[in-house]
Design a protein that fits this description.
The structure is a single chain. The chain has 478 residues and is of the alpha+beta class. It has helices at residues 3-23, 32-36, 60-64, 67-83, 234-271, 299-326, 422-428, and strands at 107-113, 120-127, 133-140, 146-150, 155-159, 163-172, 176-185, 193-194, 197-200, 207-211, 214-215, 344-347, 352-353, 357-366, 384-395, 409-411, 417-419, 444-454, 461-464, 473-476. It folds into 4 domains: 3-83; 107-215, Immunoglobulin-like (Sandwich); 298-328; 344-476, Immunoglobulin-like. Helix content is 25%, strand content 25%. The strands form 5 sheets. Strands 5-6-3-9-10 form a 5-stranded antiparallel beta sheet, with no helix packed on it. The chain has a 5-stranded mixed beta sheet with strand order 12-20-19-16-17, with no helix packed on it. It has a 4-stranded antiparallel beta sheet with strand order 1-2-7-4, with no helix packed on it. Strand 1 (107-113) and strand 2 (120-127) form a beta hairpin.
Length: 478
């Protein structure tokens, strides 16, 4: 065989062997340990071994010539194997949703009622910051109430054209406090009156803090409430009447029975004659003895007694049912087993608690018609307007509690309702999405909620809830 043919065959065998060896690393690893073992580095070919020799007798140059080809074949395979991404990305823990760190407000408010014959309140406004603050303090007045006395600097105004309020514009130095006072005219003697107060920014758009208090009339010695005597209670009277009728019926029946026996005995004594029963010469035919029957009360007596007893039972049952129905609160919303907690209703300024949150609506004000503008900067609706509610939310549970804007509703006349206008609410909160972060356990926030309504009438009721299955609370608008 010529030398050139032998060289070609040897070269072909070496190329096939090197190709098989190059394909082995691309196969899947048999075990994790084998896959984790680092691949040995590729051997750099010697340049001297590549130089061919003209002599054909020695096979060594021919055997050393293919390594450059093997290196060239391995390089793309190794690059391809390293560029292949892993089949499963490394597991990443989901980001924990933590509430944003709440910054304490620079202004705090505290409201306390005074013990006086007429409603009086003390409002303490404190600046806890290191710089002076311009603030606007507003106190909501109960429906129908009017201010009779206001501390210096305050004036009575109308919010939204319907609700009366007292407003002060203050400039508080750093670490200072001031006390404001109001006196109201009671709408009804002894009626409790709730008047919340809030401190806003200088323009009156964003609340710093809010507080509320309820004035109660001075405790007067209450007259002792004694129950009616037994003979004046309707069930007792009916029962006594029924027993009396039954006794009368029994006495009458006994009297009739004894009277019948006496009549029978007298008739038998008269039949014997003057001989005292000794007989005569001529015997008298025997007369059949009258058949005696058991005497029973007359039918009219039984029917009358039954009617009286039935009337007494029905009267007592009706009186009891009437008392129970009268004690039911018809204003309370119906609940079922699907809801968590019980629905609670109340006026503005009163804390109302549901399953997770304690809501307090301090103030609701509506703008003029056409004040609602879309979030994209379009034109305002001819009848649309925005109503802003200042709401305090307290988490009464021990865990983080999320809440959603779609569940907060404002009910309009006619039964229609609208959810929170989230873009407008975000703008009222300086661009912060108040529904994005859950409320921390035991914390309290005061924030504005904006509702876009149509028509001239303000909302009649606000419905606030923490979750889909929560019964929630309902706040009646004045």
């Amino acid at each position: 065989m010529p030398a050139s043919t032998r060289h070609h065959r040897a070269l072909a065998v070496l190329v096939h062997c090197l190709g098989i060896l190059a394909a082995v690393p691309a196969l899947p690893a048999a075990a994790p340990e084998a896959a984790a073992t680092p691949r040995p580095p590729a051997v750099t070919p010697q340049t001297t071994a590549v130089t061919p020799r003209p002599t054909a007798a020695t096979p060594l140059p021919v055997a050393s010539a293919p390594p450059p080809v093997a290196v060239a074949a391995r390089a793309p395979l190794a690059a391809t194997a390293e560029a292949t991404p892993p089949s499963a990305p490394p597991a990443m823990a989901p980001p924990s949703k933590r509430p944003a760190k709440t910054i304490p407000p620079p202004v705090t408010v505290a409201v306390a009622p005074e013990s006086s014959p007429a409603p009086r309140y003390r409002i303490q406004v404190r600046n806890v910051g290191n710089s002076p603050v311009d603030t606007t303090v507003r106190q909501e007045l109960p429906p129908g109430a009017s201010a009779t006395s206001i501390s210096s600097g305050g004036r009575a105004t109308r919010a939204g054209g319907s609700t009366a309020e007292v407003t002060w514009r203050l400039r508080l130095p750093a670490h200072s406090s001031t006390t404001l006072g109001t006196a109201l005219a009671a709408t009804a003697p002894g009626q409790a009156m709730t008047a919340p107060a809030c401190a806003f920014t200088s323009d009156g758009s964003r609340p710093y803090d809010c507080a509320t208090a309820t004035w109660q009339a001075a405790a007067a010695p209450a007259a002792e409430v004694t129950e009616a005597p037994p003979w004046r209670r309707i069930p007792v009277l009916l029962a006594g009447l029924a027993v009396l009728l039954l006794l009368c019926a029994g006495v009458f029946w006994v009297w009739r029975r004894r009277r019948g026996r006496r009549v029978t005995a007298a008739a038998l004594a008269a039949d014997r004659g003057p001989d005292d029963g000794r007989g005569t010469i001529y015997p008298r035919p025997s007369a059949p003895s009258p058949a005696t029957r058991r005497r029973t009360p007359p039918v009219w007596l039984l029917v009358g007694a039954a009617v009286v007893v039935l009337a007494g039972v029905l009267g007592a049952a009706g009186w009891t049912a009437t008392r129970r129905v009268a004690s039911i609160d018809t204003q309370k919303q119906p609940t079922s087993g699907a809801w968590m907690g019980t629905a609670v209703s109340g006026p503005v300024g009163v804390p109302l608690r549901e399953s997770a949150f304690e809501f307090t609506v301090y103030r609701v004000s509506c703008g003029a018609a056409g004040s609602a503008r879309p979030a994209d900067g379009g034109t305002a609706s001819a009848a649309g307007r925005r109503c802003q509610a200042t709401v305090g939310v307290r988490n009464v549970t021990g865990d983080l509690q999320p809440w959603h804007g779609e569940l907060q509703r404002a009910y309009l006349p006619g039964g229609r309702w609208v959810s929170t206008d989230e873009p407008a609410t975000r703008a009222a909160n300086l661009g912060r999405d108040v529904f994005a972060d859950p409320v921390a356990a035991g914390s309290r926030v005061v924030l504005p909620l904006v509702f876009t309504v149509d028509g001239r009438d303000p909302p009649r009721q606000l419905e606030l809830r923490s979750g889909v299955f929560s019964a929630g609370v309902r706040v009646d608008m004045p």
